[in-house]
Amino acid sequence: MPQDKDTVEKLSELISAFICYAAGHLPDDVRQRLDEMSKIETEGFAPQIYDCMRKNMEMADILARPSCQDTGLPQFFARVGTKYPYLDEVEASLIEAVKKATIRAPLRPNAVEVFEEYNTGNNIGSHIPWIDWELVPDSDELELYFYMAGGGCSLPGMAKVLMPLEGYEGIAKAVFDQMTTYGVNACPPCLVGIGIAGSAEVAAKLSKKALLRPVGSSNPNPKAAQMEKLIEDGLNSVGLGPGGFGGKLSCMGVNIEQASRHPATLAMGLSTACWAHRRAGIRIKPDYGYDFFTHKGVTL
Amino acid sequence: MSTFHFTLPVSDEDIKKVRIGDIVYVTGLVTTGRDDVHHRVVVSGKDSPVDLKGKAIFHAGPIMKDLGDGRYKIISVGPTTSMRMEKAEAEFLAKTGAKIVIGKGGMGPKTTQGCIDNTAICTIFPGGCAVVAAEQCNDVEGVEWLDLGMPEAMWKLNVEEFGPLIVSIDSYGGNLIEDNKKLFAERKEQALADLKGKLNYMS
After folding, report:
1. pLDDT one-digit tens code per residue, B58-76
2. How far apart are the first and last CA of chain A?
3. Beta-carbon neighbour count of residue A212 at 10 Å?
4. Which of B 40-59 lie inside 8 A of A, CB atoms?
5. Of the CATH numbers 3.20.130.10, 3.80.30.20, 3.40.50.620, 3.20.20.80, which one belongs to the domain with range B3-176?
6. Where are the domains of chain A?
7. DSSP label of B185
8. Is B39 noted as a catalytic residue in this protein?
9. B202 interface with A at CB cutoff 8 Å
């Protein structure tokens, strides 16, 4: 079936507005956690850094600008209902929305073609925007996450396959090693995403998906939730502080997502989100009505 | 801890007054330059098209709005991860005469030595605060090497009271973030020791 141009136009307008808003406004849960942390971080450089962060959020809102110059490499996580009537138009709409938002927000052009080594200038490139697809049976809605991960907080990202006898402590060690070195430069306090699985690419993908879960949420598995808490407390005892200048805390939280592993492998993935964690989620109905659930009360 | 207000270009004398942990605000010409600019100057051996003597090099890739006729409006400009430039910074300072590096996060031993040899300092602008930084720029004087793309080009920014810039490396070999990292490494060992036996989910 040919794509319907009117649908692509309408859908891309809505998604472009969603991206533009998300570039300048952190989600509710992140703002709340930063507010809580700033009240605890009362010594050293921390109060000055938190003041600057608060001022930046206010100015980005007033001036309607992207709050950080690094608006990331465009990446969508789409959960599409099998009964969503515009399934054929989704991909074209996402690409069109990125083009529009790049001009309107404006976003920084970040798509650099590999081997040819040039910046495409409009955030469209090979496999970019990256789209992660999931089908949702019996749903007629499109649920979308857009996540603007900058280069700084993407640098600590890693995945490796441990031997099972290295155990969950081996996972913790890899996380601590990375967060106390690369993590210092990744605009802490970060949200730490950990994936545990049977192979590197699954663990890596789950670690990114873990960052889409709200700050302060827990894994439904009690043991996983306990591990989240233990690693969070442990990282906080290191005291990276905001910007890595030292403080009482290190991270906004630790989120773990898991898939069954192979008997002979224990793979782990790590993704980190900077304090300016621009993750945005929206649920779009067939009539273009929407629920912008990461930013409550916002009309696009 | 002292606070300094410098007008660019700065003298060696001024740079020598500054120690790690001090805060600096600068006024004058600040030029952006990151991976590709350092590569061109240090590896490809090209001369910087901007005179950086006594001035500041800003590790940043801004969002600019093209107003036409070679004019640009700055939208957002925050610091990028300075560690990426570690390999080239010392030589970059020697070649260009830049005196102040502005960026994010720490830099390593090569840059520390480069700051001693060239009487220079490294400073950190609070990461992610790109609108605050943009609003401290009075205007965009121009751009060089735009063929590298918007983030990698050399943008010439006229800034006023640009900061706070927290001094992370001084001209005496002090390195604030490396000191912090040593402390973090010690605490990490303790934290991992405390976790021992608590994550034993394999029966």
Report:
1. 999 999 999 999 999 999 9
2. 30
3. 18
4. none
5. 3.20.130.10
6. 5-24+68-150+278-291, 153-273
7. H
8. no
9. yes
Note the pLDDT tens digit of each residue in A42-67: 999 999 999 999 999 999 999 999 99
**What are A276's two structure tokens?**
């300016």
d(CA B43, CA B107): 19
Identify whether the C-beta of residue A276 lies closer than 8 Å to the C-beta of residue A67: yes
CA quadruple A125, A127, A130, A135: dihedral sign: positive
Nearest to B32 by CA among B51, B56, B11, B9: B56
The nearest alpha carbon in chain A to B184 belongs to A238
- Helix/strand/coil (H, E, C) string of B145-163? CHHHCCCCCEEEEEEEEEE
Domain ranges of chain B: 3-176
- Which pLDDT tens digit goes with each residue over B5-38? 999 999 999 999 999 999 999 999 999 999 999 9
pLDDT in tens, A245-274: 999 999 999 999 999 999 999 999 999 999
pLDDT reading at A2 higher than 80: no
Q: Which residue, A149, A190, A155, is CA-closest to B84?
A: A155
Contact A69 B164 (CB under 8 A): no
Evaluate whether the domain defined by A5-24+68-150+278-291 bears CATH number 2.60.40: no
How many angstroms separate the CA of residue A86 from the nearest CA in chain B?
Answer: 33
pLDDT at A192 over 80: yes
Mean pLDDT of A91-95: 98
pTM, two decimal places: 0.95
Query: Could you tell me the CA-to-CA distances from A285 to A84, A93, A139 in Å, in that order?
Result: 8, 15, 10
Please state, in angstroms and rounded to a whole number, the distance separating the CA atoms of residues B123 and B98.
Answer: 13
State the Cα–Cα distance between residues B55 and A286, nearest whole angstrom: 56
